[in-house]
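Entry: ASST-domain-containing protein
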Amino acid sequence: MYVNALGNVFVLYRVFAQLATVFASGPLPAPHGETYNRIMIESTAHYQVTTDTSRVVWPWRTYKTSMHNPPVLNISRFDGELAPGYVFISPVDNNKQDGTYDLSGTGFIMDQRGDLIFAADEDGMGFCNGWVAGMTDFRVQAYQARKYITYWDGCNTRGTHWGHRGGRVSFIDEEYNKFELNPDLGINTLEPATRGSVDVHEHQMTDHDTMVVTSYNNTQINLTWIGGPADAWVADGMFFELDVKTGKVLFEWRALDHISLEASRYGINSAGAGVTKRVPWDWLHINSVERVGDNYLISARHHFAIYMISGTDGSVLWKLDGLDGGSFGSMPVNFRWQHHARAHNVTKDGMTISLFNNMVNRVKNNNTQTNGLAFWLPLPLDPHNPPVLVRQLQMPDEMLFSGTQGSYQMDVGNGNGFMGYGKVPVVREFAPDGKLLWQARFGQDGAVMNYRGFKMTWHGTPKARDPVVLIENPRLHTPRVYVSWNGATEISGWAILAGNDKDSLEAIGVAQKKGFETVFELAHNKTLQCVQVGAIRDGEIIRMSNTACVGDKVTSKGDYLRLLEANERMKAELAELEHATWGFYKVFAEVAMGVVLVAVGVWVSIFLRDWRQRQQYQSVSKEEW
């Protein structure tokens, strides 16, 4: 075993020595395309665009080394500085239209050029037998001073209210390790098949490392006093503040305990609501919650209102009504059917409230387009000191009408605003003065929707999965190599090892990373059969890929998963090699220590013998004297 371990160690030494030979000629490449004193291999971004004209499905990209198929972003770019960061979307099929090619609700991180950065795996998204809702609210949040991708996923049975779905919240760290928040909130969900009681709408972290989530409790109630049936069902809008680690409920609020049913602007008979448990009267429709100090800001879509809720007793502290101003006096502009209310710059003198103003419900009306709004709310309350309009983002010549869903980030890092248009599959970035800077469409109206869209920064290095490489050499033409690493950011290039077989790999150069999947050719040697690459970041190789040889294929999800399994087997073999090598060194060290101890013992014996002889000689000499 030790002889074999030494042989394998020599092979690894030879590989890395070859890399060192190439890299000794100059610094490693940076992501800006500078020229280096080394062997550079030309590379390009690789993807194929597929279109199915027989259906409403939006065009999608396909790759050689990934099973994911993100939508093509139809991008419009205008003059002006864009904010740093990536775009976060999770397109969902609307009304069974099958408008997305990848699994409905897959979360995607994409750059502003439309290149894929990360596609979330769909493991667990079909965890019940109902209608999969997929991922929503896909974004970055902070927990315990670390950045996480957070998202909701769940499902329910067809025929129930789309906005009332039970599920769970997932957290993915920068190494793509995952944990879930799936508390039992003890509520009455729509269907027994629905797993989890966290609602689809809100999953917002607080400054206290807790999370506020929405939920709906289906409650039977007598509504004859407002013209409804005696055995009606209502969706009691609720929110909970949760301990992320344990799922323990730290605060609970129920709308029926604090707000009158008469405040609803959504009729009791709307869409047949209120008759059955499956389709309850959604009189409030809570769709966003944020902890503000010790209190909570909520958006009540069916009231056209934003409420501030006391964190002490759950009472309503004030109401911003989209039509008449509520507690604040007359409104400078109106809002209706809104989503995603957030507080900014909160002081004792007031705060700014931003929101996504749907303005329409199911269909457009009054030709008033959906927009992003921000108001300054002066405090303390004074009807003679009304709200002030701070910002209104809309396009007079390119009106969008989003009847449901949506999000508005007031500041994405440089003062720019970013909007996701919900039922309309479009995201936009605006300058602080309201000028449109960037727009991307990723589906047909009515066929695809995207609950919220965000622009955020993210840094990722997958721990469990390595880069995936594939080599093709049809009929002994020039070998062509494809490589990608789903979720890895700030990778500037690929260090290339190639050879006629897996045991003869030698460093041959560096290719610059381009796009999600990079392709390059090994034109100098058409007989090369195998290749391995190393991902370069900040001048260092941070991870090696699998070793791929001609004949390997990644044409389906099964092939992709088998390749990943091969990767894992290779890593396991390397771990065994490392263990065997350490065993060799351990034995060598023990033998060496034994030799040292024997040598010391011999030296001590000789020293003691000489010492005794000197003592005897000195004793005789003294007696003779």
